[in-house]
Every structure is written in C-alpha cells, then in structure tokens.
Amino acid sequence: MKDKLQQIIDKAESELNSITTKPELLNAKSRIIGKKSELNSLMKNIKDVAPEDRREFGQLINEAKDYLQQLIDSRTQIIDELIYNEQVASSRIDLTMPGRRTVQGGLHPLTQIWREVEDTFLSMGFEIADGFDVEDEFHNFDALNTPKDHPSRNLADTFYVEDNILLRTQTSTVQIRTMENYQPPIRIIAPGRCYRNDKMDASHSPVFHQVEALVVDENISFADLKDTLNIFVQTMFGQNIKSRIRPHFFPFTEPSAEIDISCVSCGGSGCRICKNSGWLEMGGAGMVDPAVLESVGIDSEKYTGYAFGLGIDRITMLKYNIPDMRILFENDLRFLKQYR
Ligand SMILES: [Zn+2]
Asked: Which CATH number fits domain 109-339: 3.30.930.10, 3.80.30.20, 2.60.40.4070, 2.70.50.80?
C-alpha cells in the first residue's frame, strides 16, 4: 500500500517537473488528484480494507493527497513566474533601437521670403498695410489714373467677378485705400496676392505676389526712392548688388521708372539667368502722380510721394535659384522639403 502511494507520488513529481504551461498543469492536476485519478480509486477501495486498518489507510491517502496538492501549488508558482518573466522580456524597451523620425512641416519658400521682405521694410520704419483681393474698378484702375480705354482693363487681362468688381491686378489698390484713410506722413508696404488672366508658364502665373511700397511726406524726392530701393535689395541679396532705374510709363506715377538690379547670379558679367545682360528686372517705381494725391484729398502742393512694386515670386526665385515659377505653385513636397 505504501509502495503504491510512493509510486503515485514519484510519477506525479516527474510529470509536474516537465510541465511549463497553465493548460498542461490543469490536465495534470485532474490526472493526479481528480475524480478519475489513481489516488481516488485507491480511496474507493477502502471498503475492502480490514476495519481495524481503515483509519491508517485513510490517513496515508490523505497525507499523500496533501503532499501532491503542495507539489501542484509549487509548480503553479513556478509557471506563473515563467509567464511573468516572458511578458517582461517581450515588452522591455530596447534603448539601442533607432528612433522613429517625427516629420516636421516648414514654411513655403514664398512665405519665408514674404516674411523676410516684411522684416526688411519694418526695420526701415515702414508699416504693413492690408487690402482686399476682391476690389472695385475705382481702386484698381480709376483712382490710379488708368484711363477707361487702357488695355489692362480688358476682360482678357483681368478677372471680373461682376460688373465693376474684380480680382485686383496689383497691390497698388492698397496705396489708394491707405491715402483715403490717412493723412501724411505715410510710410507703408502692402504685400499680397494679385490676379491676372495670364497663362501659366515659367515666368507667369494667374496668381502672383507683389509687395507695394508707398511713402508720402513733405520733401520726398526721387533720391529717397533710390536710397530705399538700394537698402532693400542689398539687404535681400547682398552688399554687392546695385540697382538702376530706367525711364518708363505707369499711369499713376510721374515720372515713372523700371527697376533693375545687377544679376544676383553672375554679379553683372552676364549669364543664363540675366540673359547675358548683367541686369534683372525687378519691378516698377515712380513719384506718385499729383493727380492721384488730389483724388484722395492730399494736398499735392505740400506733399510728394514715391511708390514702387516688386514681385515676391521673382525675389523668391532669385534668392533660391528656382528656374521655373510653376514650381512655386505645384506644392510638390520633394521640392518644398529642400527649403525647410
Ligand atoms: Zn547673370
């Protein structure tokens, strides 16, 4: 009898030692001490034992059962530890793994230059004025001295929203709105979007960006205009850059001029970008026509002023050596990433 119990215990010990999972353990537990276990069938045989020996018999079986339960409990503990250690190992943070890069956005090159232009003029004492993208004909043409039959008013060149209402073709509209509302001294720039019915190509876009400057005060002369322009282009492109002025015609300035700067690429010796001329066209300028001053109620005997307009797209292309204007509007991330 004792031998039989020892056999059961030995067998259970070796069986439990090889178990590593919870389901295996549950099966083993039912085999070892369950209803259909060898131990349980021994217990059922108690009726065949002589009455005087039954007490000892029962005691031995109970002791064996307690011992087997202890074996199962300690195996359960070992398996729980194994599972816990595995979980810790699999969720451990590996500090030697390479990190994941966070992708960070950046400002569009046009926005970067727009802000640089603003900062440059702010440092020269200008204020920033804002206007409307949708304008009336008066502010876009009439007040700027543009005759009714001027070709720029043509439907083919200008986007009309309805009769008399259009998408502004120039930021000069802000000059008029500023002079209507403020008396001199005036010293503003107006950066913004403009619209013309141009076909998109390497140097044209139906939407483009201009910055307009307007200064009206006593004793303002053409020399002041040249000085301001020179400081601006040298701040943007470098101290070696020269500017020059060629006579031109604009309806709202008198005299009027076109502004060139020495080529930022070759420095004036001639290259592909300046078409071998050594100069780059930058925009238009001039002294505000006295008729324009009078039309907005500013005394043209007392005050004079100058204005100029430059292309922000053009400045961006020159600064970043971008050969085709369309690239600025395509928003191809592979291009934009280079200017972050
Ligand atoms: Zn050049």
From this structure: 3.30.930.10
